[in-house]
Each structure stands twice: as C-alpha cells, then as structure tokens.
Amino acid sequence: MTAQSPSPGMNPPPPHKSKPVRVVPKQPPPSRQGVTVNPAPRQPANTVAYSQALSRYQHARHTRFWWRNHFTTIVLVAGGYYYWDAGYWFPAWGYDPSYQSYEYDGPIYTYGNLLPDQVIVNVQRALQDRGYYGGGISGALSPATRRAISAFQQDEGLEVNGVVDGPTVYALGLI
C-alpha cells in the first residue's frame, strides 16, 4: 500500500494549535492598615468549647459509687477530687466528703495528660513571664490568677472569662 498524496487543490488541514493560556498573577488582598485581626483560636478535635464544658458540668454532690459509674478518670488534687470529661477537669463534689476544697468551681482545660494543678502552674508561669501575674506559683486558680488570666485574655482579644480554657492555653503558647 502506498500513501495517497493530496489532490492538487486540497491542502491537508494545519496541525491543531492550542490556544495560548493567559496567566494572571493572583492579586494580593486589599491592604488592611490599622486593622488588627486576631485569628480564630485553635481547639483540639477531642475537646469542647468552654461554654459546652460548662453545660456538661455535674455540679451536684454524688457518692463515690455514682462518680465511678459515670466517669472513668477521677483524681485527687490539692484538697479535692476532679473528674475528666471532654478535655476539661471538673470538681467531683461529694466523691469523698473529707476532701471538699475547690478554689474554683468550674471546668479547667487540660492538655498533654496534665492534672488540673499542673495546668494551672503552667498558666501561672506563662502569665508571670509576660508580666500579668505577680503572685506565687501555687497551682490553684485563685482570684489573683483569674484576674491575670482576664487581663491577658482582654489584651489578646480572647473571650474574657478569667478561666483556663483552650484558646487561652494556646495563646499562652503552652500547646
């Protein structure tokens, strides 16, 4: 077989040329001079927001038997028992009537398997290093510690609640 050549008046179609692609550089976002934007605080996937932790709080006196049937992790720390739930430590009221001393009656965010007093010690040190806290490092969420946390939260543009929550721990650089 031989290849046929085109007839004298018929030219083969020109090879298909692709259209030129026009590349437009991405424009930078408009300038926001004078505007301070705080990024949304990071929160680990296995924890809940502080407001949700408050709603989960079992603020009622229960027997040791009740606590053991409802929560798997309960520890004795600084004069009181705490239970762990969804990334927070909570006072376990009534777990042992001999231990009923809680300086703060609410959730305390935790990270890295730390006990509540260890978390508070780290927060107190970080606040002290930044000039917000001048008291002793005690591991207790005292009124002075809560005032220092509130001042830090306000300066960082966080929700001001005076407690150890996830966004505050992140902003302090502890995680």
Question: In brief, what are we looking at here?
Answer:
By secondary structure, the chain is α+β, with helices and mostly antiparallel strands.
Q: In words, what does this structure look like?
A:
The chain is of the alpha+beta class and 175 residues long. Strands 1-2-3-4 form a four-stranded antiparallel β-sheet, sandwiched between helices. A hairpin with a 2-residue loop joins β2 and β3. 27% of the residues lie in helices and 9% in strands. It has helices at 50-56, 64-70, 116-129, 143-156, 166-171; strands at residues 74-77, 80-85, 88-91, 108-109. It has a domain at 50-171.
Beta strand %: 5-15%
Average pLDDT rating: 81
Number of DSSP helical runs: 5
Radius of gyration over all CA atoms, rounded: 30 Å
Strand order of the largest sheet: 1-2-3-4
Number of strands: 4
Instruction: State the distance separating the first and last CA atoms.
Output: 77 Å
Overall, the morphology is: globular
Largest sheet: 4 strands, antiparallel
Q: Kindly name the structural category.
A: alpha+beta
Helix and strand run: HHEEEEHHH
Give the low-pLDDT segments: 23-43
**What share of residues is helical?**
25-40%
